[in-house]
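yo

u said u wanted the structure for the complex thing, so here. seqs first:
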Amino acid sequence: MISIKELSKSYGKLSVLKSVTLDFVKGNSYAIIGPNGSGKTTLIKSILGLVIPNSGAIEVKGHSIQNDWSYRRDIGYMPQIGHYPDQMRIGQLFDMVKDLRSDFMNADDDLMREFKLNEVKDKRMHTLSGGTRQKVSAALAFLFHPPILILDEPTAGLDPMAAEALKEKIAVERNNNRTFLITSHVLSDLDELTTEMVYLEEGRVLFHDSIELLKEATGEIKLARAVATIMRDKKNSNQHV
Amino acid sequence: MIKIGKYIIYDILRNRFVIAYTFFLLLVTLSMFSLESDPGKSTISILNIALLVVPLVSIVFTTIHFYNSYDFMEMLLAQPVQRKTIYFAEYFSVAIALSVAFLIGVAVPLCIFNFNESSVYLILVGLMLTFIFVALALMASVATRDKARATGVALLFWFYFAIIYDGIVLYVIYSFSDYPLEKATLSMVSLNPIDLARIVILLKLDVSAMMGYTGAFYQDFFGSGGGILYSIFVMTLWAFLPLMIAMRRFCTKDI
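structre next:
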């Protein structure tokens, strides 16, 4: 679905992604984890075409994304923090995005109903709490049945009920053969939501494997423990070398 | 572009800063007419204030708006939309919203109290200055991620064109007064959109004596009609070139 080859990106002297090669297969859901500043957001932004890489290539559905914009039709993106024009009403925001994708007919408003956004659609953006804004971002990402969904810290800032509703929605869509890329620091969430894990550190892919195998290899039941174990092992082996 | 633009304009027109700008212009224009009995003189006073305030407000508001809508642009860019579209939507929304403020604040009272050719030209150059300085401010904004630095650079543009530039011209004329400087000063005027705007109005009001050396020569060189056409042409370039430079940068930058 998405293939990334030798992707490198640096901001001035700071090199954020170092020759990253990854393949995201259709229908799988990927957890992208790593410490702060490991390049997760830069990787996501490169796929979205927001960040222009220094070298390397990204292909979505077999087509290079360079100088292309129409491929974003297939991607739903939920940013870490959504900011919208202060005076815009929720309803207007949805109208505008629907306007932009006028080729699309039946929008997916499950999340809008779930989060009861219709009841507050006349509220202006600057009056919304951070959590409500997250709900708006989540509903926007799922609106057009995109085959690829990129969620950056989806549950951060959501109340437990809303987080649960979002997770349920993700579970439903996973069965619809959609591809998910999810970053989060809440490993227990990722444990439920994803099947594959990509671990980034200092701009390199440290490992990329299925979570099942990872748990087997480490003998742990929880993802968090499995990750901790494998990190410790890596560190130890590095010290021996 | 229009689909996005109409929502941005709607958002800006409700912005307190723009509302305050409109009322300020309205207040200035009305008070000029009530203080001065000769409408021609009021027009010149309004011109002098507009030449300072319009560029300043355009520059400050554009940089602030650009950085405030950064995350929103990021969200739009994740949609299947070209970067160019978003860039032009941002430019035209800001420029049109500020033009609306200028029209309500200056053009409407001007047309009521003193409707003649020079007023029409004053409105025209006011609108052109808005489009020019919004473009210059965008050029400063897309160049850096740092809000403070961009605002500083944009303000420097204003400071340079509104204040420092006149000083430089005077200095050059004074130091090289032994040489024929007509052509040189003429080309120097083209380098400053605010000067061009002033000359258009003064040529129209036929008070070239008030423009000093450059203005008198300018009128002599072009005659009124040609001078105005030339000024408007160069001012269009002043809006177009920064706009295009900033667009190229915006299309290749990291958001």
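Strands of chain A lie at 2-11, 14-24, 29-33, 55-60, 63-64, 75-78, 148-152, 179-183, 196-201, 204-210. Chain A touches chain B at residues 11, 45, 48-52, 69-73, 75, 77, 79, 81-88, 92, 96-97, 99-101, 137, 140 (CB under 8 Å).
cya
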